[in-house]
Amino acid sequence: PIDNSIISMDSYCSKSGSVYYVKAKPITSELNGEGYANPIDAIEAAKDGDTINFAAKVKIEKPLTINKSITLNIKDIDADDSAIIADGEGVNVVINGDTATVKAGLVPGDAKTIVATNGATVTINGGTYGVCADADGLGNSCVFSNGGNIIINKGYFSSDAAYNGLYYVLNKKNKTDGTITVYGGTFENYNPEDGDDADKGTFLADRSTVAKTTNNVNSKVLYTVYPVPSTIIDGKPYRFVEDAFKDIEDGSVVSIIDDTEIKNTITIDKDISINLESTISNPNSTSVFDISSNVTIYGDPDSKVIGASGMDANAIMVRGNGNLTIKGGNYNVGPDAS
Fold first, then answer.
1. DSSP 130-190
2. Which of 113, 161, 269, 313 qualifies as a cystine partner to 104, CB 3.0-4.6 A?
């Protein structure tokens, strides 16, 4: 008989005829350069501030329960039960989904896709999130706050079935202090502006807007939330200025319309113009902008570019064949280390 208890947890044993094979389990996640066959092991090994990169699609029987402040760069997740639960006061979990699809409740029961509980905070940046019906064919909650806080910046969210005529795509446990705040994303058969079915209010972030459309193929009603933009490129709004500059092309017109603080230097290698209508600052890195192309900044009288303090800090760095033309605005940098 095959005895998997005597081999490494990162391997498994199989039999073909009279031959036994010991094979390594595929790596599904990476933490600090070390691969893990099971994302649960990576989560257990992680420390506050760590980032776990999922390397492949995973199927989980139990939820990924997290009680530390970490970032998850996920791939597809198939969950028999709930998928991801953040638990504990002060716990901050960031989920970067991009093209990932997370489906919870594949074994019919009481399941949820993303949960924040007991004071934890979850921030969702992209991905597709759904939940199956329960054992009675009734709807489950896709995103659920049980005394926790959930911030949704973007993504697609759905629940496969309704309960009492409502789709609980976003749901909050009644009479708890938890919050759900939606800055952006698309929600199937549910309007975040309507908030919780019992506690009412709204889940829509201040100044965000929502648009309703109907899918002509399957008749699903979609509610898309548009964030308050900090930046507009060629007419397209962006909440985060860093995301905006990732999409620039030669000839783009970038308008920075709301005060914003960035964490990393913005590198510009395309020939663009910038309409500076507010303040952009970077207290953390060497420069606000690092330019190696042809850039013209049109600054309003009260607009500002504020660099950091410390050795080699500056508001704008121009290097190589870069050319910068400034037409208005204010440009400041803090003192050096001495």
1. EE---TTSPPPPSEEEEB-EEEEEEEEEEESS-BTTB--SEEE-TT-S-EEEESSEEEET-
2. 113
How many C-beta neighbours within 10 Å does residue 97 have? 22
Residue 288 CA to residue 307 CA, distance in Å, equals 6
SS3 content of the chain, % helix, strand, coil (to 5): 5, 45, 50
Nearest to 130 by CA among 79, 194, 203, 61: 79
How far apart are the C-alpha atoms of 106 and 133, rounded to whole Å? 9
Dihedral sign from CA coordinates of 68, 72, 78, 82: positive
| Joined tokens for residue 160 | 């496969």
How many other CB atoms are found less than 10 A from the CB of residue 3? 8
Alpha carbons 93 and 155: distance in angstroms, whole number: 16
Query: Which pTM does this prediction carry?
Result: 0.73
DSSP 1-16: ---GGGS-TTEEEEEE
